[in-house]
Amino acid sequence: MVMDYHTAQFLLQAKASSGLYLLTASLNCAPQACLGEKVTANTWHFRLGHPALPLTKRLLIACNLPCSNSVLSLCEDCSMAKCNKLPFSTSCSSTKAPLELIHADVWGPAPVLSSNGFRYFVLFIDDFSRFTWIFFLASKDEVAKVFSNFKIQVENLIGRNIKILRTDGGTEFKPISRLFPQIVHQLTCPHTPEQNGVSERKNRHILELSLAIINHGCIPLVLWDEIFASTVFLINRLPPSANASIVSPFELLFSKKPDYLQLKVLGCQCFPLTRPYNQHKLQPHSTPCVFIGYALSQKGYRCYQPQTDRVFVSRHVIFHEQVFPFRQNKLHVDTSHPADYTLWVPASMRFGPNLFPSRSNTVGPSSSSSSASLPQSPANGPPNGPVDELPDESLEITIGQLARNLQRSKNSNAPDRTPARSSLPSSSSNPPDSTTSAHHMTTRMRDQTRLRRQFPDFVAFLATTPPTSDPTTFNQANKIPHWQDAMRSELKALDQNKTWVLVPAPTNHNVVGCKWIFKTKRKADGSIERYKARLVAQGFTQEEGVDYFDTFSPVIRPTTIRIVLSLALSHHWPIRQLDVNNAFLNGDLLETVYMRQPPGFVNPQLPSHVCLLKKAIYGLKQSPRAWFQTLSASLLQMGFHSSKFDPSLFILNNKGKIVVILIYVDDIIITGSDMGCIASVVHNLQSRFPLKDLGALHFFLGIAVSSSPNELHLSQKQYISELLCRTHMHLAQPVATPMAVNTSISQFDGDPFHDPRLYIAVVGALQYVTITRPDITFPVNKCSQFMHNPTTTHWSAVKRILRYLRGTIDHGLLFKASNSLNLHAYSDSDWAGCPDDRRSTSAFCVYLGNNIISWSSKKQPTVAKSSTEAEYRSLALAGAEVIWIQHILQELYQHLSQPPVLWCDNIGASYLASNPMYHARTKHVEIDFHFIREKVVAGQLLVKFISSRDQIADGLTKGLTSARFLSIKNKLMVCPVPSACGGAIR
């Protein structure tokens, strides 16, 4: 027994067994004690993994869980993790009169750029009547202008003022509150389109009906704006399906019933009366068209003629509602695969992957489009609407009429003209370019049919597909191994040339930035030669007088190149090509220039330091000048002398052995009469610069060179192919001439073009193509006159040039060896050919032997009083070019056996040039033009008459017929690669 000694309390007892006492006792288990402890209801909520609070309460009661406090408090973690949109109650608000509340919303961008250049539309919905107005936009920033015009017109039409405007929180609606403070602007909460449910549901309604119409008639997707406008026109005449009322929005707003008998099936065949446009009485009185909608400003129908891209508005129309031309003509390739309509549906309106069939080869657009303030869409009012008294005559218009209100406000002096619209792709065609092209320059075959693709066509398509785009940022390139290698190679070259030293950043001196430029270098056949990464300074941050002074640096003129190539071919001189690696880094920098360290390659030990440049790195304003001075100084030391008439031409005469060098930045052409002298010059240059000898000339400045002993062909096929791909014209239907016959383009023709930058870029690229293509000189010169304000008509002219190049992509300039190097030129003018200022166009082409070496087409600076004066001015320009060429030939030690001849097809101008006597009718002509007389008197030039039929320069002054153009084109030496040159690039 065990007792407490002090208290005598009995504690326990035990029995002895084998000399040990066996104690028996019961002990409390710790886990059981914990389970018996009562905790709060919130603790049970946490233990159970944060279920819903009502479920936690039910478990506490049903399972009789020990709980010291059954009250559940708010769980902050649940609030953060389970926050969702709250349910919306049914709206009970209603308006009592029109225009009390206007719902608005912007839809877009559309996956296909419309033929009018639209990507978006904005809806204005009257809450009282549910009448809808739709206006098409090029960009969202036009919404405020559209609403301003809409407000004026609709308030004048209804006789009431808009009181409330309800929109989402898009930035395009923000200017409205500032412009119209009298209107209450209600905004939805961010990311809560349900608060603008009327507009969102209307968007879906319009989209669903439009897609049904497009699919039913196989209507090309580029006509989506026409179909959407017609859909809204019909919706406004349909009673709402949510109630039993048969009163349509149109009737509620205008208090008159719509005329359903005038409605026809959209997309069906129609025959509008076109007799007023006939040129003679034996022409048909109508032409087959496609019905695309209802007119607003006229009481008539909109009829589209695919063959001419015209839209006729006529009251006198015969409909064949069971015939659908787009479906019958099979503009689409395969009707079993509809277009990817899912791209049209915003994410908030999609219900699942099976709502629409999809295709994997659909591509979205990326280009902008033309602007419109208040497009006169058919949805805004009916032909039998508030205005009934309208003329019955047919009016020929274009879809571009929709955008003219805003464009007239931008250019109020421009008269209204009718442009030709771009061709239309099918709504169901397989090729991506014909359904969702990134740009609306998409064409179709003229006969509205598609040929079955055979294997050779597929190969041709692959050859003309756009090349893979180069990286535009360091982050993009740094993920690709071959661009990483290219950047390391560039930095190695910079280090070898001791381009800079790292110094602490100056506190009182400008520091320029730098960036990486990436370019895939290609061979003449388009295959990849190498990947080039170039570190360039951001020269636009330089300060004149601080880190640069003079910047001018000459480059070789194209005419000089052609002169030297013609001479080399005739004399059988070898032509070699040289390339200087990192040429600018060989130029010494005289100014103090600081530059930031290259992106991605900052020195980790000196991250705050900057580069003090010692060499003329690419991108600096003075770099080309520094490199040219370095190279020219070396050539002068080697015995060359620079031409006085083209500073980039260097000539060496070593005891009658001629060596000629042409310099275009870091690309060099070398030729001459002695192979040993050429090799010696190349060796000397290689000892001074990191020079690559590329062998025989084959690719120079983007020009492919094919040669044989007696022929040499220059072609820009690769450059033209890339240009066609960039403009999505690589599958266009070719044309026979780059400009239609007797075309007279005015600056006021057509609507303003939606993307002037695109126009400038394409015309600039075409100007470069004229280096080897004199056949497009005049149309390109004509289009370049409208760069300040291009229109849709001007853009159509550019597209025609591209279509012509598409059919003659392998054509180029041909040179032939000639024993006679006589110099002769053809001069012509188009008197008062410009319809805007009545100025004339001067043109000339100069030949050395049989080879054309120079040409020009240029508008004269002043108005000529007669055709003789215009021809005389053109003759003077041609004479100036011939005199300059004579000087170049003299420097090249080439002596002409007889004076150059100028051929002119105007007898009066020939007499003026040959007769130094005073003429009263030419006393106003500038004195400098009369220098041609002095040259004729001195015997340096001969002016002779030639018939207009034999005048080659006629092709550089106007558009010609196909037969006449082909004849002149052959004389301009433009042709495919001859078989003697291998028929392809060597």
Fold blueprint:
Elements: E1 2-3, E2 10-12, E3 15-17, E4 20-22, H1 30-35, E5 39-40, H2 41-47, H3 53-62, E6 67-69, H4 76-81, E7 101-107, E8 120-126, E9 132-137, H5 143-158, E10 164-167, H6 174-179, E11 184-187, H7 197-217, H8 224-235, H9 249-254, E12 269-272, E13 289-294, E14 301-305, E15 310-314, E16 317-320, H10 325-328, E17 395-397, H11 404-410, H12 455-463, H13 474-477, H14 481-496, E18 500-503, E19 511-512, E20 514-522, E21 528-537, H15 558-571, E22 575-580, E23 594-595, E24 610-613, H16 623-637, E25 641-642, E26 649-654, E27 657-664, E28 667-672, H17 675-688, E29 691-696, E30 699-700, E31 703-708, E32 711-715, H18 717-726, H19 756-769, H20 777-784, H21 792-807, E33 811-816, E34 823-830, E35 841-848, E36 851-859, H22 867-891, E37 901-904, H23 907-914, H24 931-937, E38 942-945, H25 962-971, E39 974-976
Parallel strand pairs: 5-6, 7-10, 10-11, 19-23, 34-37, 37-38
Antiparallel strand pairs: 1-2, 3-4, 7-8, 8-9, 12-13, 12-16, 13-14, 14-15, 15-17, 18-24, 20-21, 22-28, 22-29, 23-24, 25-26, 26-27, 27-28, 30-31, 31-32, 32-33, 33-39, 34-35, 35-36
Helix pairs in contact: 7-8, 19-20, 22-23
Short description:
The chain has 986 residues and is of the alpha+beta class.
List the uncertain runs.
330-378, 380-467
CATH architecture of the largest domain: 2-Layer Sandwich
**What's the shape?**
flat
Q: Please state the oligomeric state of the protein chains shown.
A: single chain
Roughly what is the average pLDDT, rounded to an integer?
A: 78
Radius of gyration: 39 Å
State the domain count. Answer: 5
**Main beta-sheet annotation:** 6 strands, antiparallel
Roughly what percent helix? 25-40%
Number of strands: 39
- The CATH C-level name of the largest domain is Alpha Beta
The CATH topology name of the largest domain reads Nucleotidyltransferase, domain 5
Number of contiguous helices: 25
Strand order of the largest sheet: 16-12-13-14-15-17
Which class of secondary structure composition applies to the elements? alpha+beta
Cα end-to-end separation: 119 Å
> Which percent range describes the beta-strand content?
15-25%
